[in-house]
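Reopening closed ticket. The problem is back. First fold of the pair:
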Amino acid sequence: MDEKNTYSEQGLKTFQKRIREQLSQHRKKLKLSQIDVAGLVDKSPSTYQRWESTGTCLTNIHDFQKLFQVLKFSTSDVIELFGLPPLQQEELKTPFPDKNTRKAIEEDGICLYMRKNCANMETSTIERLLDIVSDERLKRRRYKR
């Protein structure tokens, strides 16, 4: 087995561990049972229990989106879940004053990072997750004003 595959497998195991922990923590914080969450995301209790106990088989973007909404994940929670580095806006402002250029750099950087660390996840799932994170960030910015 080459080094690249080993890294991807380790990254997947780390991701699955974070999924298990975060799903359980958020569910318990909201005082919901596994059966409650399963019903709210339109899945069987056994499917949700598998997600929470193993962190596997959760690859559909729509399932992620429903879970994030039902379990009230914040943008920070999503970033932490995927092990993304925090965005450093100030580092991009000086060399790239144009907002559109900065936005493209940020999105490409996150997408590349996710592809590297979530190797088994479909590209469309990664792209949709980035859309969710961006939308949430915009909502928070508007709310703060």
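Second fold of the pair, where the issue appears:
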Amino acid sequence: SMFGILDQVVVLGQDKPFISALIVPNLDAIINKMTEVGMEFNKEGVVYAEENGMQVVVEVPPEIVAGDVVTFMVRDAIDRVNAQLEPYEQIKEFRILNKKFTEQNGMMTPSAKIKTKNVLAAYQDVYDDIYKK
């Protein structure tokens, strides 16, 4: 895709003073890259599942997505998305998640649509943190 680091994006805050997003980065690409360049990471914390007959990464240790490299890449991609949007549509804040939305974890429909309600319920604390008074 055009913004390869952004795998799944849930846009929130249509009724709030600004727009935010919960972002699942491309976990496969991150793990492949880290392995390729020989970066150390907790391999036990990487969870795989089968999707369309392929093994894909569905969860990584939280510290991986919290790291500077992933944060920078996501911010860069968001900046490029925002450049194409009206100011009021732009994503002002985002949080990077370490778990993919899947049908198995109840976050997606069989036709691969994200169940926003379920995501919000699961990440209520994150949402509250973004929009804290």
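Update: turned out to be a display glitch only; the data is intact. Residues 53 and 87 are 41 Å apart (CA to CA). The two ends are 36 Å apart (CA to CA). Please close again.
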